[in-house]
């Protein structure tokens, strides 16, 4: 009897622990909506919009991969609504995601991108409907695109080209939105819209950025707990790859995305490097980002501040 009770208890505990792993969604997405630039309107609609977006991002199953609760991708969508007329809203969206670094308490920014082409229609308490085969609304298309991009980039940081299936899903979203004629999706409309963002990761000329994602995070940051010099050397090699991307496509949004996510971190990484290494890294980064010279000069400074 004791053995059977023990077995039953063991099974109950096992399934209680197993179910969250099987059912957990991929994203832990924090959503904020800033409406400071809008006056004299009922702002209750933005409360329901915020909750609707959070539920949409966090309850949708975006992949077939199995995620434990503590493996969810931490990300943030920060909307700034600048215009609101009837049901039409427009403004900016700051998209951010982070990744833990192995054997440390440190987290690294992976995406930090501002989309300035946000425009959609939304009515208070309107349900957001997911579809892979149809474009339900421009809002859900935007959310789908960034969900897949966040996942694709995150997967690329853990395995070489691991995000390929999700870039393709993002590409499908772009194709449907382009057919619908919505703003922010058109090819060659500008160099920083959603079509350009996708191209930065998938076009042959700029696709080395995906190798950078893996080498920088898996071979670089993740290795620093065991060997700071070895990990930093892998990061340095990534900068040489980014220079090749620059030579092939100097206007690629991928370059500015890398800068916005990584420049401050790079300054920190090389704060304890040798003089020769600092000089080399400074020259490479200055060639990529001459307008950031004030920040880049900090690489050459003697510093005891290092989070790694």
Structural class: alpha+beta
What characteristic shape results from the CA principal axes?
Answer: globular
Question: Can you count the helices?
Answer: 10
Compute the CA-based radius of gyration: 22 Å
**Helix percentage:** 40-55%
Q: Largest sheet, if any?
A: 4 strands, mixed
Mean pLDDT: 90
Uncertain ranges: 1-23
Give the helices and strands as they follow along the chain: HEHEEEHHHHHHHH
The number of distinct β-strands equals 4
* Residue fraction in strands: 15-25%
Output the strand order for the largest sheet: 1-2-3-4
Tell me the span between the first and last alpha carbons: 54 Å
Set out the fold topology.
Blueprint: H1 2-23, E1 27-34, H2 44-59, E2 73-85, E3 88-100, E4 107-121, H3 138-158, H4 164-180, H5 194-202, H6 208-220, H7 228-248, H8 253-269, H9 275-288, H10 293-296
Parallel strand pairs: 1-2
Antiparallel strand pairs: 2-3, 3-4
